[in-house]
Amino acid sequence: MIRPKKESETGGLTLKSRLHLLAAQKEEREGRRISDSEIARVTGINRATISTYRTPYKVVERIEARVVTALCSWANCGIGDLLEVSSSN
User: Fold this and answer.
1) 33 vs 61: CA distance, rounded Å
2) pTM greater than 0.85
3) Of 34, 40, 56, 59, which cross-links 47 as Cys (Cβ 3.0–4.6 Å)?
4) Taking a C-beta distance cutoff of 8 angstroms, is the pair 86, 72 a contact?
């Protein structure tokens, strides 16, 4: 599980979710709306978890490897496409 606890432990960096962008790109490619429930059903991830990570640029405090791999598989992307590392300032 990826879980930075304090800013001092991360060197002032934060991890942010980009799931909202990946879902929007997939919606555009497929020409249809994709619900959190659909992503949850396909990936096996709880819908509330999908909703949390689909919040634009949600700061990720912890994420399980199985969630990362399932979402990357669903979006056909790499971890760097799903999670953004940025300065917390």
Assistant:
1) 28
2) no
3) 40
4) no
